[in-house]
Write a structure and sequence with these properties.
The chain is α+β, with helices and mostly antiparallel strands. It folds into two domains: 67 residues, Orthogonal Bundle (434 Repressor (Amino-terminal Domain)), CATH 1.10.260.40; 170 residues, Beta-Lactamase. It is 51% helix and 12% strand. The chain contains 13 helices and five strands. A five-stranded antiparallel beta sheet has the order 2-1-5-4-3, with helices on both faces. Helix 2 crosses helix 3 and helix 4 packs antiparallel against helix 5. It starts with a helix and ends with a helix. The mean pLDDT is 91.
């Protein structure tokens, strides 16, 4: 039970909850929470699920907590290519295609590209970014891409902010932590203390033009599968009129 106890305590501390806070939320005694964290008590499956709910754990971590307590997982982890997920694949394709002439892509938890629409293929093909590649790796290590990001320092700061938020949601994650450390080693800070505008676009230099984008993220709701819960659709929008016109022209060519 040591692994369960350690995981429970780690998540409670990550959520900045005292044992009493968690006990009140889960409607159990603080003493019982203490016993669970020290291994003096063994949780029921229902208790693990109740604590997971109050700690707002992602599905993969709920499975991990259940496994540590000796129970079967609550959520499956299928691949998007499996037959029964065909409606989801169709929905993803529909969203990406309908977003044209603006770029869009589907990403997993670690920013691996699962699908991208034709406008993004045209923009990112020259720098070697495609399906199965890591967008995060490209943003941090692909010199062809990095050299064409006009406001690279701002983008790295925004990436670090986003990774910090994702780490808070997912808990321990070697991939996210490794990339955060890479950004810190380069001097990136989540905030520099200066006032910021309501939106900071990413500006790419493409074919002699500077195109500016901001993004909107979408996720599927009420899903009971880990892969689907971590699937994100990132839709890029033009941040100025020149970019909008350029994308329409690229789409027509």
């Amino acid at each position: 039970m040591g692994d369960f106890s350690d995981r429970l305590r780690e998540w409670r501390q990550l959520r900045r909850m005292s044992q009493l806070d968690l006990a009140l939320a889960a409607e159990v005694s603080a003493r019982h929470v203490s016993f669970l964290e020290t291994g003096r008590a063994q949780p029921s499956r229902d208790m693990v699920l109740r604590l997971s709910t109050e700690l707002r754990l992602p599905q993969v971590e709920i499975n991990g907590l259940l496994s540590a307590a000796g129970f079967a997982p609550a959520y499956g982890a299928r691949r998007l290519t499996e037959a029964d997920l065909a409606p989801v694949r169709e929905a993803v394709d529909w969203m990406l295609e309908r977003h044209a002439p603006y770029p869009a892509m589907a990403l997993d938890r670690h920013w691996r590209v699962l699908a991208l629409n034709a406008p993004l293929q045209r923009l990112m093909g020259p720098v070697g970014l495609g399906v199965e590649d890591s967008l995060l790796e490209a943003l941090l290590h692909n010199d062809s891409l990095r050299s064409n990001i006009v406001n690279l320092a701002e983008v790295e700061r925004l990436i670090l902010q986003r990774l910090r938020s994702e780490l808070s949601h997912f808990g321990r994650d070697d991939v996210i932590e490794r990339h955060m450390q890479c950004l810190r080693n380069r001097g990136a800070q989540a905030t520099d203390g200066a006032p910021t505008p309501p939106m900071i676009p990413t500006r790419y230099r493409i074919a002699g033009q500077v195109l500016s984008f901001f993004s909107a993220m979408s996720q599927f709701g009420t899903v009971e599968d880990i892969a689907l819960s971590e699937l994100r659709i990132e839709c890029m929008f033009p941040a100025d009129e020149a970019t909008r016109v350029a994308l329409i022209q690229l789409g027509a060519s």
